[in-house]
Amino acid sequence: MQAEEEKYPRITDDFLKKLLRSDIRIYYSTRYLNDKLYLHYKGFHKIENLSDFTGLKVLYIEGNAIEKIEGLENCTDLRCLYIQENCIREISGLDTLSELYTLNLSDNMIRSISGLSNNQKLNTLLLQRNSIGANGLQDILQLADLKSLSVLDLSHNKIDDPEILPQVLEKMPQIGVLYLQGNPVCKKIENYRKVITYKLPNLKYLDDRPIFEEDRRFAQAFAIGGIQAEREERKKWQEEKEAERLRNHLAFREMVEKHRNERVEQEAAKSSESTTMSEGSSDEWNSSNETPEVSYIGSRGSETKSEDELPPLEEVKIEDIPFITGVRNEDKEEKENFTSKLIVEEKKEKKEEEFKGTKIMIEEVNEGVEVKNEERIVCEEKIREEVTENEEEKGEKVGEEEKVASNTEESEEILNPEIHKLDPPSKDIVEQRLNQIASQEKADLELLMRKQQEDLDELD
């Protein structure tokens, strides 16, 4: 037997040392300081060498081949034991684990629930996919002794006795989550869900669905008066929900109206404050300034009267209403005069600059400033064109008078075409033309200068 056990992995001292060194983020090398231990899916057949883990609170040892719960006597602070998916046939070895809170024994070969009398703090017991109930109701009777149990999973077992409800479950009113699906008893209890909901007042979750408040009310009505009472309760519940919806709607409208009224009051208060401030400022201004005199400028001449001396409004005709000027009109006129003065000064400065430029140009002409080379070339080209046009006109007139010329003369002209070629204008002609242009330019500048002087005189 011992030789056979040595073939399988074991929780040896060397294995534990290696495990504690494998991940320093999870484990301490000092064994009693560790509160978690992961031994799942290793192929172990036996729980051993855990006596030094006295501070252990959570043990993951699922997915092995363990046949018996043992070796946990010194782990008195253990809170959670995950030992599912093993080969355990009987619940035992948990007597010293008085602090045990969660126990997962799913997917084992357990036939009856026992060995849990000392685990009174147990809150969650998971026993799905076992063989519990094969021997009848006696396999689950010990559940009634677990007064702190709140979550119980007995799904997919062999429980088929309907007496589980009165003899076991009704004695566990603290149950909040119950899984019984997959057992033959679910088909044997008539109106299974309604009955379980009615019998267990604190149940919040049954099998694959939660239990809501209306579900409990319908179940209670059904248990008391049958299907007709349940229908009436459903109708009553719908009316209550509609009334609640209407109340919420009215409350929301009231809240919106209240907020709107508060906002209107705030805006009114702000407007009254601004009005008070404006009245105070106007009173202060009136007290600090005397009543201005009003000047009448109309058809009857201009005279100055106070506001008290004004005629009644009923006696005044529209055509006799004079223009009224006061302190504010005088300020406006002063501002307009200042603006117009600035505009005049700007125009004057611009005209003075133009006048100075014209004067300089006249001085340059008087001093005999030569025309630029480009301008001289342009002038020469223009004069050549004019002289050429004049010569051509003269040639046309002479040609008309000498139409009777002989053929020999025409042949000579053809052989000597340069005898009629026009000579370029002489230098004297160009100079004469340029002097004419300069004189005309000087006259134009003097005229422009006189006009600018007149504009300056008008601005002054």
Give a short overview.
InterPro entries: Cilia_flagella_integrity, Leu-rich_rpt, Leu-rich_rpt_4, Leu-rich_rpt_typical-subtyp, LRR_dom_sf. This protein is an alpha/beta fold and 460 residues long.
What features would you describe in this structure?
Pfam families: LRR_4 (PF12799), LRR_9 (PF14580). Residues 259-317, 385-427 are annotated as: Disordered. Residues 271-280 have a biased composition (Low complexity). Helix 7 (327-366) runs antiparallel to helix 10. The chain contains ten helices and twelve strands. The chain starts with a helix and ends with a helix. Helices cover 47% and strands 8% of the residues. Among the domains are: 2-228, Leucine-rich repeat, LRR (right-handed beta-alpha superhelix) (Alpha-Beta Horseshoe), CATH 3.80.10; 349-399 and 424-459, no CATH class. It has helices at residues 2-5, 13-22, 164-167, 185-188, 192-199, 213-288, 327-366, 373-401, 407-415, 427-459; strands at 36-38, 58-60, 80-82, 102-104, 124-126, 151-153, 177-179, 205-206, 209-210, 294-298, 301-305, 323-325. The chain has a nine-stranded mixed β-sheet, with helices on one face. It has 460 residues and is of the alpha/beta class.
Oligomerization category of the chains in this entry: single chain
Structure annotation, total helices: 10
- For the biggest β-sheet, the strand order reads 1-2-3-4-5-6-7-8-9
Please give the share of residues in helix.
Answer: 40-55%
Distance between the termini: 135 Å
| The CATH architecture of the domain at 2-228 | Alpha-Beta Horseshoe
- Gross morphology is elongated
Mean pLDDT across every amino acid position: 80
Largest sheet: 9 strands, mixed
% residues in beta strands: 5-15%
CATH superfamily of the domain at 2-228: Ribonuclease Inhibitor
Biased composition (Polar residues): 283-292
InterPro entries: Cilia_flagella_integrity, Leu-rich_rpt, Leu-rich_rpt_4, Leu-rich_rpt_typical-subtyp, LRR_dom_sf
Protein name: Dynein assembly factor 1, axonemal homolog
Subcellular location: Cell projection, Cilium
